[in-house]
Amino acid sequence: MTGTMRKKTTVDFLQEGRPRSPEEWMRKKKKFDGLEGVEAKVKDKKTGETKTVSGKDLWRVHDDLFDLSSFVDRHPGGRMWLEETRGTDVTEVFESHHLDPNVSAILHKFRVDSLSSPLPPRSSPFSFHPDGFFKSFQRRAWDVVSSHRRSSSPSSSRRDLLTSSSPFSIVLLLSLLGVWMVMMGVGAKMGNKWLVLASGAVLALSAVTAHNFFHKKDNMWMYAFDLTLFSSRRWRISHAISHHAFANSALDVEISSFEPLFIVVPCLAHKKNVLHRFLSFFYLPLLVPILVWFEMLPRLAFSISRLGSLSSSDKWAALETLAAFFPCVSLVFLVVVLGGDFSTSLWNWAVMQTACSAFFLLIGLTAAHHHPDIWHEGDFSRLQKLSRSSVDPLSDKDNSNSKETNGGEEWDWGEFQLEAVRDRKEVAGGGVAVLTMFGDHALHHLLPTIDHAFLPHFYSAFFETLSDHNLLYPLSSSSSMALGLLQQIHSDFRPRP
Question: Which of 147, 222, 278, 330 reaches 20 to 30 Å from 379, CA-CA?
């Protein structure tokens, strides 16, 4: 169903400038995917009448179009995912977010056959061949889920690995939020600015933990993220959709949001100057926490625009609308603690939120994606292969002698993720550090809807698939990743083989 027109590259996405916000990214993505010029004949399921529908009202998966309009309200993950991605190619998001193989059969029911013109070639370089690394791992991961289900009795308290949230993750999140409130309140009451700053760091750890939940179907826990200046809805676009599907590429809005002030990725949009290469790492921690306050403006605009349509029958839509006001919960709390002293409360609240933003961004920038040994747009593929079976990534063995190869025109999406992600030895294998510091990151990218606390269940399947495909996934360290960020910032724009 595809045409013979020129296949776009990820760099083509930059032709009209870098997107600065999730909303702008989504608008550019719809134009980039080129579905607006396609029309299809669709039969209305209620009336039986055939109508002409524009591609901008359909969803693309691989080389087919689907009319999911009647399914939006019934989507198990929540309507937001389909509302935002209407008119785009969602192949990467669909494949990575649906581990259950039965979902493809459900999707096929909504397939559109009658197109007025051929579909343009997919603008993504990634493939999902049945025998490739990602689909092979996905089948093994599904076997893990199925085996876990079979071993659990109906009366068992064991949680389903695919659909459930881990009690450990929930308890950790609630504990962090409790510590945050106490530290913030005590610090403000005592006039201890260091305790107020530290409470902001604890809120940042809570936000990283809450990020675990907004990859899943709509749930109440993900809105803990909205207690910060960031929005879970906007981050579902910029992080769960853009970053996870296209990590470190030109289609990853997270790497372009701060350009040209801060540049980590080799691209064609900007040239690095002395300021970028030598000073940006020092002014970024000071400047970005201030700029993050502007996150509140689109959040408030979105919520205010939807206040008139609030409905008690759709609790998730109501929560999503009210979430822009959640950061004010801590401000009200401080006003109560300080006996109505609004100005002092506002000052402490601003200090706490600024510290939270700075610490959150520091964790994110040094976690898993920015190092000279990690693939960024403009680099050649440096996929690491072994002549024998894969070495366990969690071992302490020296994995530095692997052979590097260049990628072909089509790139297995799972292998791409291995190149764009690097885990740290200290933050792997489960536990508090994994949930609060973006740990087990490779598995998280390959299985984004699985609770972080459940990811260790899938390491055996991961290692086996690495071995079968003769791949190596080496680990780094926290200090190496921090140093690597500095090196990545300092590097110029020449592609590194």
Answer: 278
* CB neighbour burial string for 140-155, b if at least 16 within 10 angstroms, e if fewer: bbbebbeebeeeeeee
Does residue 244 surpass a pLDDT of 60? yes
Q: What amino acid occupies position 466?
A: L
pLDDT at 239: 95
Q: Is the peptide bond before 260 cis (omega within 30 degrees of 0)?
A: yes
Q: Which residue has the tokens 């993504």?
A: 124
Are 378 and 266 in contact by the 8 Å Cβ rule? The answer is: yes
Q: What is the pLDDT of residues 166-181, one digit of tens each?
A: 999 999 999 999 999 9
> How far is Cα 131 from Cα 419, in angstroms, rounded to an integer?
19
Burial class of residue 381 (count of CB atoms within 10 Å of its CB; 0-12, 13-18, 19+): middle
The two three-digit tokens of residue 275, written as one number? 């300021």
Is the CB of residue 86 less than 8 Å from the CB of residue 116? no
Q: Please compute Rg for the chain using Cα positions.
A: 23
410-431: string of b/e by CB count within 10 Å (b at 16+)? Answer: ebbbbbbbbbbbbbbeebbebb
The two three-digit tokens of residue 244, written as one number: 């996870």
Tokens of 52: 């002409």
**Average pLDDT of span 360-382:** 84
The 3-class SS string of the chain reads CECCCCCCCHHHHHCCCCCCCHHHHHHHHHHHHCCCCCEEEEECCCCCCEEEEEHHHCEEECCEEECCHHHHHHCCCCHHHHHHHCCCECHHHHHHHCCCCHHHHHHHCCEECEECCCECCCCCCEECCCCCHHHHHHHHHHHHHHHHHHCCCCCCCCCCCCCCCCHHHHHHHHHHHHHHHHHHHHHHHHCCHHHHHHHHHHHHHHHHHHHHHHCCCCCHHHHHHHHCCCCHHHHHHHHHHHHHHCCCCCCCHHHCCCCCCCCCCCCCCCCCCHHHHHHHHHHHHHHHHHHHHHHHHHHHHHHHHHHHHCCCCCHHHHHHHHHHHCCHHHHHHHHHHCCCCHHHHHHHHHHHHHHHHHHHHHHHHCCCCCCCCCCCCCCCCCEEECCCCCCCCCCCCCCCCCEEECCCCCEEHHHHHHHHCCCEHHHCCCCHHHHHCCCCHHHHHHCCCCCHHHHHHHHHHHHHHHHHCCECCCCECHHHHHHHHHHHHHCCCCCCC
Compare 105 and 283 and report the one with higher pLDDT.
Answer: 105
Q: What is the pLDDT of residue 277?
A: 75
Stated pTM of the model: 0.88
